[in-house]
Amino acid sequence: MAGIIEVMVERGLLSAAELKKIKPSGRERESLHRLAIRTGLVSEEDFLVLAAEMLKLGQISELPTDYDITPFTEISPLFLEEHRCFPLGGTEALAVIVNDPYDHLVTETFKQLFPGRRIELLLAREEKIFGWIREHFLAAATDADDLETDAPAGVFLGDDVDHLRDLASEAPIIKLVNQFLTKAVEDGASDIHIEPQAENLQVRFRVDGVLREHATPPKNIQSSIISRVKIMARMDIAERRLPQDGRIRIKISGKDIDLRVSCLPTVYGESVVMRILDRNSISFSLGSLGFPEAERRRFEEMIHLPYGIILVTGPTGSGKTTTLYAALNTINAIDKKIITIEDPVEYELNGINQVQVNSKAGLGFSNGLRSIVRQDPDVILIGEIRDRETADIAIQSALTGHLVFSTLHTNDAAGAVTRMVEIGVEGYLLSSSLVGIMAQRLVRVLCPSCKEAFIPAPALVERLQLPFKVSNEEPIYRPKGCKECAFSGFRGRVGIFELLPVTDAVRGLILESQSSLLLREHAVKNGMTLLREDGWAKVRAGITSLEEVVRVSGA
Question: For residues 122 and 180, what is the distance between their CA atoms, to the nearest angstrom?
Fold first, then answer.
């Protein structure tokens, strides 16, 4: 059977010469018939008539007066706009109005959302579908009253900027941005990425450490969406050539949410990332982080010491800050003065003095630390040790009776010693001040509603050197996917840990300038649990999967 492009040529709706012009366009994501319509070579009306004839589909121009949106409230209006479709309803079959019946993702998506229902397509003009989406779905999206922001309107100069501000203040754009924020918080996302592409605007959420596509709004509203975010974050919307940072304080579903906003110019426009800081979703309790019982007891002993340095290591996004906040929360008492210096302050903790690094004003880690030491603290948290000056002040603080917490970017606990020596810290000072090092990662937790038991192949068990046997009586679990976990197979994250106590023997090895490999081997012989071993324990307990442990630990 001939395709629609061939029939267009046969019937004279599209000439062979015109077809030849659009074929080498390089627009791989756009079908030829959509390109022919968009460039005006074929009218939308001719396409709909021909598609209705070839596929034996009906057309619709008006919705029923009693249209009910209730069964479809979970569907993103952005998906409907991107794919030019609209769910109509029905009892036995589900009728879906489309502008392009050859967009098979529409049918597959509705089959997945409504399993067991037969999908029937109806055709309508694009402007009709967009009008119905605005009338029913965007009107039902979160109203501006549900999201309260303290951002002022701001003062801007220039006709073009005024036009952008007007566009960003229109109700559909406000509702669209509000829908992003509300959906991201509901999904438990840690970040929202708004990324300009050549043909559209890509919106992704980072959920449980993994990016998921949320929507691809049309290119023509890119500037309006980004300008709306910049206005909320008190950024200068006239500045589009330099990076900017901002902050939004907002209330969503009764919860106070902080958003850290970063704006970066790219070749296709400004890329925006919003870090969602929801204190209600974070537990600052050591018992809730996933520590093995023995490691938790040892760590608690360390954080109750009167002086010394405790380091937490791991890559960005491995939960280091949460662990340190939980440690501070545990020891916070009326008889202790705790001061932190962070870049940035992520969560505000009651009873703790938190200092925000401000490089533009000349307040960095090193000079900020000098002032902190003069504030008579008992406990100091340094967001990150980045250079020798900061490291030297931290060590001097520890040697003069302060308990110091900080972070480093190293792969394992023993590697932190090597990193500190590379920065320029003398071995004898490090061995005298260091009391413990902990490496950590975050693994995704299997969805309890759909995880399934399985027995891995013997070759895989042998290759990974699993320290336990897997059988039908004691299986392990893998992700499957269901509505509860948005078909990802995972819900939430938990830590895996590697705790290296700095004993007298370890201090001797540091003084001898021994390699991190020898330090690691010594610690393992004396009972240290490696990251992957803690991961395997959580696999055996049905908490996470083999793939997750391999992904984060490189096992």
Answer: 29
Residue 358 DSSP code: B
Q: Return the SS3 of 46.
A: helix
Q: Is the Cβ–Cβ distance between 19 and 5 less than 8 Å?
A: yes
Give all strands (DSSP E) within 317-386, no chain letters: 338-342, 353-356, 379-382
Residue 151 has pLDDT above 70, yes or no: no
Contact 286, 296 (CB under 8 A): yes
- pLDDT(248) > 50: yes
CA dihedral sign of residues 64, 65, 66, 67: positive
Cis bond leading into 172, ω under 30°? no
What pairs with residue 277 in β-bridges? 258
Q: What's residue 448's pLDDT? A: 94
The Cβ of residue 352 has, within 10 Å, a number of other Cβ atoms equal to 17
Residue 324 CA to residue 309 CA, distance in Å, equals 12
Q: Scan for tokens 């997945």, then name that residue.
A: 112
Over residues 78-118, the pLDDT tens digits come to: 778 878 899 998 878 899 999 999 988 888 888 888 888 89
Q: How many CB atoms lie within 10 A of CB 119?
A: 17
pLDDT digits (tens, 9 = 90+) for 396-411: 999 999 999 999 999 9
- DSSP labels, 193-244: EEEE-SSBEEEEEEETTEEEEEE--BGGGHHHHHHHHHHHTT--TT--SS-E
E strand intervals along 99-220: 118-123, 148-149, 189-196, 201-207, 210-215
Which tens digits make up the pLDDT trace of 125-141? Answer: 988 898 888 788 765 55
Percent helix / strand / coil, the chain, rounded to 5: 40, 25, 35
CB-based contacts of 418, cutoff 8 Å, min separation 6:
410, 515, 516
What's the burial of 532, exposed, middle or buried (CB within 10 Å: 0-12/13-18/19+)? buried
Residue 387 structure tokens: 């250079």
Q: Is the pTM of this model over 0.70?
A: no
pLDDT of residue 220: 84
